[in-house]
Structures are given as structure tokens and as C-alpha cells.
Amino acid sequence: MTVETLVGGLSAAPYGGYVRDLDAEEPVHGVRDHLAPVRDEKQDLGGGPPGRPVIGSAGWYYEAHEDHGTVWKANRGSEAGWDVVLDWAPYVSERLVLIGEDGKSAGRYYTITIGADTLTKSLSDLRTADGWNDFSDDNGAASRAIREVLINIITDQGKRLPRTPVVAHTGWHRLPDVGLTYVYADGRSYPSGRSVRVIGAPEPLRQAAAPLERAATDEECRRAVHDIATHGWASLMALAVGARSLAYSLRPVSAAFVLDAAPNSGKTSAANTARSLLLTPRPHAWPPVPTKGMSSTATDIECALDFEGDMPTLLDDIPLTRASSAAQVREMEKKLELVIRAAGNATEIKGRRNRDLTAKPANRIRSVPVIAAQMLPPTMQESLYRRSVVIYLSRDGGEVDWRWYKSGGGQSLTVSLRTLGDRIIAHLHAQPDADSHLAELEKRAFEQFIPHVDAVLPEPGDTMDGVITAAAAMLSGLGLVAAVSDTTMSDLVEVVAAPLATSLARQAACMDAQSTAQDGVATAVGEVLRRAFSRGRLHVRDAKGVVCPAVSGQVEQDQGLVRKRDGSGWDGKGPAAYWLPQRGPALGITTKNLNMLLKASGDSRVNCYVDRTLPDALLRADAILRNNSQKDRIASHRVRVGTDNLRLLLLKPDLIWDF
């Protein structure tokens, strides 16, 4: 396990560690008493070393304080005595117990002082050499034997300290003995005063989550909600999504929220309206730090989403344009696949295993993922659209008044939005049955929203039912906003309902286009290959690799062949396709050659794939034969052609010719 950062009473130190803040609260009662020496009979007679025996390491003793310490070992020579092995010892000030998803202990952490460094380390970290590298004053601890003794010293001190619960993500937790608690990214909790820590908070996020100097008044909160509503319906919708995200663990919403917008159209301003419910960056109050940029690695994105539980998230920004390469499009599509499918299916983002192949806890979506894109991948599957609520923004369409945000409007909302966020958390905690309360808000939002949907989508179809339900669940966040800002939920929903329904109608049209394009892949491949044969850009060879008219019943030109001038045989230009009558029959071609022809055709149905994704797309479109003998290569086949052993796609010939 890598070094984890601890927030709450700790501040940044070199190498990713943390040192104790001198202004933070003192350790809990009993911390200093746990190191009181235990004296034995030999010590009373003056024959033993001072300090405590190291339980688990016979013959070792230690004495540890914040500013000094010593470790001794029994001398096995002719005269009994003790040798000083280390002129320092680790001093433990906190024992932290990680609470797992089931509420049980899932790991141990210790806050350790060695010389000038005070760091928080997991027990698994300490069992590796790397776990000690961040301590600059641990001279003499290079050997494994010494480290084992030091671990025993640490655990010996820890067992006399009170257990402090630790969580690995923000949001709602049911803690032992105290019950439902909301944990902020800076380590605070609601209700306040509960003994809990959170690990893994990036320093910018921790600072942004710190409380403001004052809370907004009721009038300021009402004014902020009014300002948001009058400066773009998309901003108010984003606020609804952010408010609903604060209750995600209490009642999940299985969908992503996507802003598909032209550059400089206000998508980030809208998303940051939601994110400001919990975050205010320092020294500037606008805009809040994003969860991650979409240019980050997939692993980085999933870890950040896993940490940000029950809080507004933002993945900003998908940097695609019409000129983006196929590789860039595929990379973004892969990241969207990970995030949106996990959100829509309420599953792990990516399964993981321990070294012994047992299941390992994996990262999950713990809030409604908000994704900002200046263009979605044109090949994004319809199934991902079905797991998303997409709103479309234009630069001057009025969805977001980005000029107002840019001129200081966003910053003017800071105090009020933070106050609203804290009030929503308190409101949710006060509910005797939060799930029922949220279900009632969703019902009210749906009833007010559905007439607007029926006006633009009288027959939405099965594919849009889930999208509409998810959109209503997100809209219900306005009920939480209304409850803590002395406004009316129906008035807020009315601002958003009609334009949101229009946006969903556009999403439905996009989904239909994607479905049609996918269904047309097989037809498009046949058309492209027929043209390639007739124009001499592709030719047929037989199963031995010989250039000849191998397809019975098809004229030579339709096989891309011309007679040699001397009449001795046949010529063919371009790449080869192999007629394999014993394979179905089928027409075999390499993925690289087929994709080259598809891209050169300019056909938008099939010119957007990369070599790695094309076989699976053709298999889904039922254009090629499935390989049932190789589970890891089901879309391609190993075929011997003459003396060569080729990896080929086996196309169904009736896509190309009439038999």
C-alpha cells in the first residue's frame, strides 16, 4: 500500500507525509501515559535497562518520547548486559483503524514521530522497506530484523491508545458507537466532534473543503438560488445534481450527468455551481478544483471518484475536436466506458485481485459523476447514452450565462453555496428515514417533469425510460435546495423542466442515430469492399495464397482481378483477401488491411475505428464469424495460407456478393 495522507490536525510535509499542526487539538487523554515504563525485578536491583520490553521481540527494550528515545538489546556475551542498538525509537501518538464497507476493521494506521518527521503510515507500509523511506532520521533501520523490532515497538504503543476510526472516502458513514456521520474532505464531520479521520485527501481538495469564516444568512441563500436560476437553467440543473449527490449513499442515482457543449459555453461554470456546495479553493474563490481532468489516466480518475463520496464531482474536460485522432477518440471512449457503465450499473469500476487471486476491494462510483465535454466521442455506444443524462449547451443559447459567471457572479455565490451545502447535510441527517424522504422528492419531481417530456417525446420508447427516471431523480435535488433556502421546489423545477425535456429529446435523437449507425456497420463493410474490388484496390486469392478467381459464380472484376498481358495468369492490386470455402465459406482479411480500406472510404459508419476495436465492432454487427476455440481472440482466427500462418477476420461473403 502506498503512503496515505491524513487530514484533520495534520499539514503537508516533504515526500507526501504530514507533520502535526501545532495549532491542532492535543492528542486524546492517555496518549502520553501509554509509554510509562514497566519495571521488572532486575531493574529494581539496578541490573536492567530502563524502558519497556518489546512484546514479540524477546531480549529487546525501548524507551520512546516525542523528542528522544532508545532501543536496547540483551548482550549474550559472558557478562549479562544490554547494548544500545538505536539512539532513537518511534513515538506513536495515534492508532487509526480503517473502517471497511461492512463497518468492520479493514486495516491499521499509526501516527509516528521519528526525529523531525511525524507521518501517518499503514501497518502494511511499515512491513516494507519503502514504508520507512519518508523518515529522514531513521538511521540504523536498514535491516529487516531491525524493522520487525520497530514494528513491534509501534504496535506495543498502539494497543494502549484509543481506537480512532478512519475512512477512505468522504460522505456518509455508519461509524461504530456513534452511527450516521458525514465526513468532509478536510476531516471535519457532521455532527461535529466525532472522532474520525479520513485518509487519501489530496492537499488542494483538503484546503478547498476547509470551512469559511462565516455562514451566509437566509436572505443571502435565497438570493444566491435566485441568481443561479436567472442566469441559466443548466446552472440550476447542475445545482440540483450537486445537491442530490450529497445524498448518494442514502439513495443512489444510477446514472452520469454529462454537459455536451461547445467551447466557452459555460459548461465548467455550471458544473462548478454544484461543486461549490462543498469546496472553496484558496486563495481564489472561483472556480473550484475539479475531481480530475479527463486527460488524467483511467486509474487516476477512478481513484479520485472513489474518494469523493456523497459530494459534487467534476471530470473536466473531454478535449476532443473534429480533428482528433482515432487514438484520442478511443482513449476518451474507454474512460467514459469505465465511469458511465460503473455508475449506471452500480458496479465496481474495475475488479481487482490480491496476489493470491482472492477478491480485493475495488474502486466504486460514490456520487453522480459530472462530465464536461466539448465533444463526446462520435463512436460512443448507445448503451452509455442510456446510462447518462446529457444536456447540450451552446455559446449564446442562454443555457448558462457564462459572461455573468466570468465577471464575478460565480465568486459572489461562494459563501451562500457553502452554507447551502452544510445545511443540506444537516437536513439529511435529521431525517428519520432519508430513503423515504428522497423517494418522495423524486416522485414530486417526476410528476412535474413528465408533462414536459410528453410534449416533446410523446413515445419515448424503452431506451429513454431509464434516462427520464434518472433525470427526475437528479431534479429532486432541487427539493433539498428548496428545503434549506426557504424557496419552493415547484418554482425551481419549473425553471428547468421544459428545457431539460427538450435536451432529452435531442439525446434520444442522438441515441437513435448511434443505434442506426451500429446496425449499419455490416452493410457499410459490404459496400466498401464491393467498391474496393471493382476499383482494383483489393483482390481475391485462394486458400493457398494464389491469385486467381476463386469465388465461384462471381466475375473476375468483382474479385479485383485482371488477366496478365501474356495470358499466363491473374494480377490483383491492393491488399489480398483470401477465399476460404472450408471456413463457412468466408473471406479472410487482416484487420490492418480491412481498416485501411474502411478509413480510405470516408464512410462515417465504419471509418472511426482503430485496429484494436474494429474486430469487436464487426462481431457485434454480425459481419464476421466467431472464433469458438480461442476465448481470448473470439473475433479473429489463425489460418494457414500456403506457407504462412495468418491472423484473419473471417467476413461473411453474402455481405459482398449475391450467391
Give your account of this protein's structure.
The chain is of the alpha+beta class and 659 residues long. Helix content is 36%, strand content 19%. The strands form 8 sheets. It has a 6-stranded mixed sheet. The chain has a 5-stranded mixed sheet with strand order 22-25-26-28-27. A 4-stranded antiparallel sheet has the order 4-5-6-7, with no helix packed on it. Helix 7 runs parallel beside helix 11 (402-412). The protein is flat. The model is unreliable at 1-32 and 41-46 (pLDDT under 50).
List the keywords:
659 residues; 19 helices; 28 strands; 5-stranded mixed β-sheet; alpha+beta; flat; disordered N terminus
Physical arrangement of strands within the biggest beta sheet: 1-15-11-8-9-10
Sheet with most strands = 6 strands, mixed
Separation of the first and last Cα atoms: 62 Å
- Count every helix, treating DSSP H or I runs of 4 or more residues as helices: 19
What is the quaternary state of this protein?
single chain
Level of helix content? 25-40%
Shape: flat
Structural class: alpha+beta
Calculate Rg over CA atoms.
32 Å
